[in-house]
Design goal:
Blueprint: H1 2-21, E1 48-55, E2 60-64, E3 76-81, E4 84-96, E5 99-107, E6 114-116
Antiparallel strand pairs: 1-2, 1-6, 2-5, 3-4, 3-6, 4-5
Length: 118
């Protein structure tokens, strides 16, 4: 058993000295990834409606607004079809329930066009 310890002692010595000679490189300072821009979410508070009737001769439209929000008289709205602006309307004083009559100022309108204040 004594000869076994004498044999293992130089082996452990070589192992330890081998580790001492090997230089470890320090880990490269990793930069944190750039922070993603914070998203700002704001609710859409613009007033919108739908064209339910279009009169080409009289150049007016009847708009259907949400029940809880109605436009002001002489307020200007823009008519959109397929995401493209195609006209401009001006709210008149004729109103019944959630339906409002608007005069076409410029452009055109068709049934089911979207109308927005912006």
């Amino acid at each position: 058993m004594k000869w076994f310890a004498i044999l293992l002692l130089p082996i452990f010595g070589l192992m330890i000295s081998g580790c001492a000679w090997h230089k470890h490189k320090p880990a490269a300072a990793s930069t944190p990834p750039p922070a993603a821009p914070r998203m700002i979410v704001t609710p859409d508070t613009s007033l919108g409606a739908k064209v339910v009737l279009y009169n080409d001769v009289g150049r007016y439209v009847v708009l259907s607004f949400p029940v809880d929000r109605m436009p002001q008289v002489n307020q200007i709205f823009y008519v959109y079809r397929g995401g493209l602006k195609v006209g401009e309307v001006k709210i008149s004083s004729w109103q019944r329930d959630n339906f409002v009559v608007a005069d076409i100022v410029s452009g055109e309108a068709q049934k089911d066009d979207d109308v927005r204040s912006e």
